[in-house]
Amino acid sequence: MELGGGGRGAGDRVRRQLQAVGRVAAYLGGGFILLSAASSVAVRSLRALSDANQRKFAMPCGACEGKGSYACRLCKGSATIEWSPMYDPVFVNPCLCPTCDGTRVQRCLNCLGKGYA
């Protein structure tokens, strides 16, 4: 009788069981990724179809006249604002407008930049 023969057989059995579990996990993971990708494509296509249908029949936005953006209301199109950290300022610093980040236009908040309501 060999003493080491039984241990090797048990190790092979454990290795095969781990390989089987690994294969099942790979199949389930791959299926989940495939299902996630397919549902993402379906949702995006339905959203694009709905958006195109709305664009065809919707009225233009009254706030931006269908442009989707308008001149920044905080800086009034100058890209900077006058700001000082003190209540009674000695001097006032010109700073970049936090609303438009210096682009001088902001997205319409009524239509969220789509151009139609």
Please give a handful of descriptors for the protein shown:
single chain, alpha+beta, 1 helix, 4 strands, 12% strand, elongated
Describe it.
The protein has 117 residues and is an alpha+beta fold. The chain is built from 1 helix and 4 strands; from the N terminus they run αββββ. The longest helix has 53 residues, at 5-57. The relative contact order is 0.13.
Shape: elongated
Number of beta strands: 4
Poorly predicted spans:
none
Per DSSP, what share of the residues sits in E-state strands of 2 or more residues? Answer: 5-15%
Cross-sheet strand order for the largest sheet? 1-4
**Average pLDDT rating:** 85
How can the largest sheet be summarized? 2 strands, antiparallel
Structural class: alpha+beta
What is the H-and-E element order? HEEEE
Helix count equals 1
First-to-last CA distance: 86 Å
Task: Estimate percent helicity.
Answer: 40-55%
Q: Using only CA atoms, what is the Rg?
A: 31 Å
Concise structural overview:
The protein has 117 residues and is an alpha+beta fold. It is built from one helix and four strands, in the order H-E-E-E-E. Strands 1-4 form a two-stranded antiparallel ribbon. A two-stranded antiparallel ribbon has the order 2-3.
